[in-house]
Batch of 2 targets.
Target 1
Amino acid sequence: MKFVKLNNGVEMPMLGFGTYLAKDGNETTSAVKEALKVGYRHIDCAKIYNNEQSVGKGIKESGVPREDIFLVSKVWNTDQGYNSTKKAFSTSLEKLGTDYLDLYLIHWPKPLNSETWQAMEELYDEGKIKAIGVSNFLESHLKDLMKNCKITPMVNQIEYSPKLTQPELCKFCQDNKIQVEAWSPLMQGKIFEIELLKELAEKYKKSIAQVVLRWNIQMDVVTIPKSVTPERIAQNFNIFDFEISKEDMQKICSLNVGHRTGPDPNNFDF
């Protein structure tokens, strides 16, 4: 496993396990247990995924000590604001069966960001969160937040894939010591249609998903693939025994066309 040191010194595993769209109940619990069994130590979830309780059950039943797991959740849009953020955070802790989070994120940029961030800064100061950050923030959103914040976000979790590398945003984050993290790194399965990635998978004797996840890591981007299939969970973890050449890294980067599979952070209605 590779780790990245956040701007407050906390170490974050660069490969995590995503739980978006994993069904609440046995599907999520089993997937989390399988991920931890394989070796993942970074679990990403969110209130809006409606499966935090099942994630917590999977962690508990895995037998892996809580302190060995980097656990992440997010405050949803309807919970933004000072008091409601603190309440939402407490609810997430209760559902996950833990008394702290390793990382807590604002899920989407909304007008109440500054009040939400103030609540998160206080929870961080109290030691209830090891690191705080944002998700889906563009440069303008980050600048607005950073005007009044005491603590610079440690992470920005954004949609990031071979067809959406957001280089200017990544450069801004790098310059401000904000770690970029990728959601939907596999483009909801659309990466399997890309000819170049098929060729590189053959060249490196790896799956297309493994090539893309390895590319993420070599781009210094934390990544959180999601699967509920044991074989895929294991395969996605097995990316630390090969390296993509500089030339091939550039080829993958050249696929960028600014194509989103998810909502535009400047234009969403939820």
Target 2
Amino acid sequence: MVIIIADTTSTIPTDEAKRLGIPYIPQIIVIGDETYRDDYEIDSKTFLQRLKTSPVLPKTAAPPPALYYPIYQEYAKPGNTLIVLAPSADVSGTYRSAEVAAKDFPGADIRIIDTRTIGAGLGTLVRLAHQWAQAGVDADTIIRRVKEWATRERVYFVVDTLEYLHKGGRIGGAQMLVGSLLQIKPILQFKNGRTEPVESQRTKRRAVERLKELVYSDCPHSDQSFLSIMHGDAFEEAQRLAEEFKTALGLSHVPICDLPPAILVHAGPGVLGVSYFTAP
């Protein structure tokens, strides 16, 4: 049997992961001297309230290896293969924690995959891998498919403010100053395992319009694009965007995902993102 293991950076709601039978790991949120698991101790809405009012910038920590131990103990039986689909190792220590924990199970077939992505696209890969495992697809084939699908993912974000990117060390002080003076709204992409700038617009409306153009340029007019909208405290905007994509691309459903605290700490409130997969 193949068991897919995931974590909260995949944006899969905790209750959905439980219903599907996907072993699920939290990220750790640090606010001053307080720490929280983001699967049931703090949610995105509560975190954003704390983010806006906290005198210190909240931080995230990768799940410690100890959180993987009970899952490995339960599922690492003879004949089982465990596949951990981890967020990009360039932005999260989750991959490393899963790897460290696996060293205490030398006889088990545990495979940790750096998916090179994060967010809703990672969630899509987890759901697909779980479906394939349930259908009896072997571990090697699942891993090969996940890696191939990952190369076709596109992720674009529009952030409402440069403040949190600056505080988190993602942009320098000069960029922050100029961006704030000009009220620049950057369009970012998640590419090659990390966040990269695409371009900037003078207003969020223009940035969102440009984001739509980027999506329309290569997103298939098919549900196989698995297009998803991600947001942080921008549900109405996300809803409008989802409806536009649904109509323009002929999609039967466009899910809207709440970004988890581990991503919101850098993107901040008001962030709006799109994930989809191009044609093979």
